[in-house]
Amino acid sequence: MDPHQDFGAPPGDDGPVREVACDESGSDGENLTGGNTDVFAHAGVHVPAADAARALREIRDRIRSPATEYKATHLLREKHRAVLEWFLAPGGPLHGAARVHLTEKSYFVVDRLARVLLDDPGAAAGLYRSVREALGAEYWQRFLPGANQLLRTRNGAEPGSSVPLFFETLDELRRAYAGSDAGPALERLAAGRGRAEAYRAGLLDGPAVRIPVLNPLLPAIVATAAYWSGPERRPVRLVHDRQNLLTPERIAWIEETARRSGVALAELRLVVARDDPRVQLADFLAGIARKAAGDALRGNGDPELTALLRPYVDPASVWGDGRTAVALGLSVPNPSVRTGG
User: Fold this and answer.
1) Are strands 265-271 and 39-45 parallel, antiparallel or unpaired?
2) Residue ranges of region Disordered (predicted)?
């Protein structure tokens, strides 16, 4: 079955260019291990503006909050559970017309570490599993923030200090876990010190406009465009909530990266979310997905909500945890596709 079949264009499609409204939830910039959330979600919604406006009115009529702008938190309140289920269920306003790309932040850090130190994005899944399972919670929580600090564009550290600090921790782990399942992976990472030095030097000497390796928003936008463009490479226009990160130079990078990947991204246009009901629906879906997936990751998920979310989850999501991958409809821990950065 074509994975795009049940998410084709609704009646009254928008001509040769498919227009998809987008928003995100869970953004902490490049602070992926010390932020407020452990999941980043980027949603795309393909519904006519008039239908989106009707859906918003229906949600307001059902919830009856005096808030000027509704957010996902309104739908996630227990007293509004029926509205949440209607929103996601077959027959609801998003059925057949939305997808959400999920990023497990800790796995994303390991994925980017594999790219920088090993020049091998395909190594991320095995690296994540072997190191996380062997180290245990205490050492994992030392390894992961150190990797995050090493890769951050601006990490507040003295120039030249990030690499020694990370490799001191890595050396300690190599000694402690020599002979364990994590041993070969840790040794392989240790051999990448030269690449780490070159990476940090490039950040100091590189161009003023940088593409942050650790920010999941940019590759998520490319992945969203790829999904809606589909195997037929239909031209897609993404209408996105304004973000400070999305400067004209970075938008140009996203568009060029998409084209190099064979994705027909015609345009990325920024709008004010409150002025576009389609973007507001995308905001709801992203917020719901981020909360549901994060709860599942921490072991206190809501099985019914996870099941309702499952049909919306993009199979190209960047996810490493096997247990929750199955619950979310992701068949295996899935390394991210090469989308630049």
Assistant:
1) unpaired
2) 1-34
Digit-coded pLDDT (tens) for 221-242: 999 999 999 999 999 999 999 9
Prediction pTM value: 0.90
- pLDDT tens figures, 149-165: 999 987 766 767 889 99
CA nearest to 27, candidates 205, 211, 216: 216
Q: What is the pLDDT of residue 208?
A: 55
- Lowest model confidence (mean pLDDT) among 181-185, 273-277, 337-341: 337-341
